[in-house]
Amino acid sequence: MVRIGIVGIGFMGMIHYLGARRVKGGQVVAICSRDPKKRAGDWRSIHGNFGPKGAMMDLSGIKAYDDLSAMLADPDIDMVDICLPTDQHPDAAIRALQAGKHVLVEKAIALKPEQADAMLAAARSANRLLMVAHVLPFFPEFAFAAEFVRSGKGGKLLAGHFERVISKPDWSADIGDAAKTGGPAVDLHIHDTHFIGLLCGVPSEVYSRGVVDNGTVVHLTTQYLYERGPSCVTCTSGALCMNGRSFVHGYELYLERATLLYSSDGKPLTVLTADGKTDRPKLTGGDDPTTAFTTEIQAAVDGIAAGKEPDLLSGQLARDALVMCQRECESVLAGRSVLV
Q1: Same domain assignment for residues 21 and 37
Q2: Cβ of 302: how many Cβ atoms within 10 Å?
Q3: Distance between CA 171 and CA 181 in Å, rounded?
Q4: Over its length of 340 residues, how does the chain's per-residue pLDDT go in tens digits?
């Protein structure tokens, strides 16, 4: 049994707690929060942009810490699940690794690539797993696309376009603070760069145009330039939409023998094949948004049990996704392409 301690009981901490309840071979045994109400199980103040609202939680049998050091000293915790604001990820993760714990840390891995490098080095030194909770590949439509493309079923990926656009978030004091999250070009867009890295690898160069608000990139469109890879990969991501459409994401993927189409804005996953057929694959787990987090945490627990980092939770892949976001922001601000 992998014993889990969750650090940070905000929206994502709550979602991880709910998701972990259905994990096999893993169990939440402790939480850490500075808020005495949350430590007592009063999570009614928590809300986010999907999933259930916070409620009164029965935390019977679960240890509640108000200090990370005390949690890290607990020998009955195997994995620390870090759901703190992004600017706090490096310190918390490195301390947990040095304390001999495996780590699952919410995306983004960090705000700066050098911080991510320090986290990866700490994991190697401690001989522990550093896993980054990029949940997108665990959502049914994206899990299908990842498996389809990586398996070669439709031939080589030739081109693709990705979209992720939200209205300006107002459900968290931290989410709008670029100093804590990196702003939409990191906190939001890193879902896309992670998935693009998973399917296509790291590009040699990026060219981005975008909208800048007080020095922070809040919306961008990027072309990813590969020396060896798909000929045309683009993505549009940002936080400019009016509240009438709070969220949309999706993709168009063009392979040698198939086309994959999906948009959360009313266009179900569709596969077009070379023989003219149209298929809409049956997917499971899409009705409950916390199911993807259960699958994600299950992968982390299974990875610890096997002693092997799950590829979808790779710390290096998460670090590369952060670098891509940073280079795209540099491209927007410089008005030219930037080497990755």
Answers
A1: yes
A2: 16
A3: 14
A4: 999 999 999 999 999 999 999 999 999 999 999 999 999 999 999 988 778 899 999 999 999 999 999 999 999 999 999 999 999 999 999 999 999 999 999 999 999 999 999 999 999 999 999 999 999 999 999 999 999 999 999 999 999 999 999 998 764 555 557 788 889 999 999 999 999 999 999 999 999 999 999 899 999 999 999 998 899 999 999 999 998 898 999 999 999 999 999 999 999 999 999 999 999 999 987 678 899 999 999 999 999 999 999 999 999 999 999 999 999 999 999 999 999 9
Report the CATH number at residue 97. 3.40.50.720
228, 303: one domain: no
* Structural domain for 39, as ranges: 2-134+292-307
Sequence letter at residue 327 = R
State how far Cα 194 lies from the chain centre. Answer: 8
| Cβ neighbours, 10 Å, residue 5 | 25
Same domain, 57 and 97: yes
Burial class (CB within 10 angstroms; exposed 0-12, middle 13-18, buried 19+) of 167? middle
User: Do both 126 and 154 map to the same domain?
Assistant: no
Q: Is 180 inside a domain boundary?
A: yes
Do 51 and 179 lie in one domain? The reply is no
Domain count, the chain: 2
**Nearest of 200, 179, 175 to residue 111 by alpha carbon:** 179
Output the domain CATH number for residue 177: 3.30.360.10
On whether residue 334 sits in a domain, the answer given is yes
Q: What is the DSSP letter of 66?
A: S
Q: What size, in residues, is the chain?
A: 340
Handedness of CA 235, 238, 241, 246 (dihedral sign): positive
313, part of any domain: no
Q: Where are the alpha helices (DSSP H) in the chain?
A: 11-20, 36-39, 68-72, 89-98, 113-126, 140-151, 178-181, 184-187, 190-200, 290-306, 315-334
Pair 326, 216 in one domain: yes
